[in-house]
Amino acid sequence: RGVSIVDIAELVMFLQTEYIPHLTLETCIESVNAVLTKREVHNTILTGIQLDILAEEDSLLQPLQSIVAKDEGLYGIDEILALSIVNVYGSIGFTNYGYIDKVKPGILKKLNDKSSGRVHTFLDDIIGAIAAAAASRLAHSNQNVLDEEKK
After folding, report:
1. What's residue 117's pLDDT?
2. Which of 71, 116, 133, 137 has the smallest number of CB atoms closer than 10 Å to its CB?
3. How far apart are CA 40 and CA 96, in angstroms?
4. How far apart are CA 81 and CA 48, in angstroms?
5. What parts of the sequence cross the membrane (predicted)?
């Protein structure tokens, strides 16, 4: 659906570069790949993309079809589904996700562009959640390193 690992890693950089000195894109890619190994993440991706495709094909029943196709603001199921990914990495994941969902940098801006004719109601939130989870994973790892340095 047009999203690469590098696209997601760039979101991780956006979230963590201020907090982790010398953070590299390669480290962000490794963290994204680690998040993508989780079965719950696979299930969320498969479910969300399938719902987006069905909405593109006008195959959902009304009123769900119009709600998903328009990505209505009060329809929060897409965010709830994405939170299943963020949940794996604790409370920092929630704050990272909320922030990135609000500012929509990088690939998230492209996915939210309704002029393409594609439906990404679920995918944009899932990608944001993967990035937030990967950023949270790095934050936890960095904190462990800082704690060890203090000893």
Report:
1. 86
2. 116
3. 19
4. 8
5. none
Cβ atoms of 5 and 33 within 8 Å: the answer is yes
Q: Does the global pTM surpass 0.90? A: yes
- 20: Cα separation from own chain's centroid: 20
Q: What is the pLDDT of residue 25?
A: 98
What are the CA-CA distances from residue 49 to residues 70, 96, 99, 144 (Å)? 15, 22, 22, 35
Residue with tokens 């593109």: 56
The Cα 105–Cα 75 span in angstroms is: 21
What is the fold, at CATH topology level, of the domain defined by 5-146?
Answer: YutG-like (1.10.3760)
Boundaries of every domain in the chain = 5-146
Distances (CA, A) of 92 to 64, 106, 138: 32, 21, 11
Tens of pLDDT, residue by residue over 95-151, are: 999 999 999 999 999 999 888 889 999 999 999 999 999 999 999 887 644 444 455
| Rounded Cα–Cα distance for residues 151 and 24 (Å) | 26
Distance CA 59, CA 74 (A): 21
Say which residue the tokens 């920092």 belong to.
92
